[in-house]
Design goal:
175 residues, alpha+beta, 7-stranded mixed sheet
Length: 175
């Protein structure tokens, strides 16, 4: 059974789907799900209700600077806060195990984007423009794991050539 196809525009739960691509050359696209941020408690000064956008499904390689640049298309951005899970962010939700201290898995994240004016939230939620946003434009590329592997592979090949050259000159002594 094929997964459900997400169409740009309104999604379930009051969210709006914004199509995004990793680069201009990418054919595959993902969707960010956005809606105005509403809180039940007293107003949070860091996240004013009328100027804060709640964003779901941010890829793990997105930085605060990248999210800031991405949502600046909708209006001037005051701040961007990335989190693993929705919440206030003031309490530490991670419990460390005394037996396992390895790196945690990077999952898709959520963000709270605060605009200078309420019009920024309205522009982000409006479903008029739905060309896919580019996450890694050529002027601000994002470094992913695959690019790091390619750089390491290139350095490895250069080192192999240096070793071959030293062997040819008989200056290579492995022990």
């Amino acid at each position: 059974m094929a997964p459900p196809r997400v169409v740009a525009g309104t999604a379930g739960g009051g969210f709006t789907a914004i199509p995004v691509r990793f680069s201009a050359r990418s054919r595959a696209s993902r969707h960010l799900f956005v809606k105005p941020h509403r809180v039940r408690e007293a107003a949070d000064r860091r996240r004013p209700q009328d100027r804060t956008l709640f964003v779901l499904n941010l890829p793990p390689y997105i930085t605060q600077e990248c999210a800031h640049r991405l949502f600046s298309q909708c209006g001037p951005v005051t701040s961007v806060e990335l989190q693993e899970k929705p919440g206030t962010g003031s309490k530490s939700e991670k419990q460390k195990s005394k037996f396992f201290s390895g790196p945690s898995a990077q999952n898709f994240r959520v963000a709270y984007v605060v605009f200078k004016k309420p019009a920024g939230v309205k522009a982000a939620v409006s479903s008029k423009r739905r060309e896919p946003w580019v996450l890694s434009p050529s002027d601000h590329p994002i470094k992913t794991g695959l690019q790091n592997i390619a750089q390491l592979r290139k350095k490895f090949e250069e080192d192999k050539q240096r070793i071959a050259l030293l062997r040819a000159e008989r200056k290579f002594k492995p022990y």
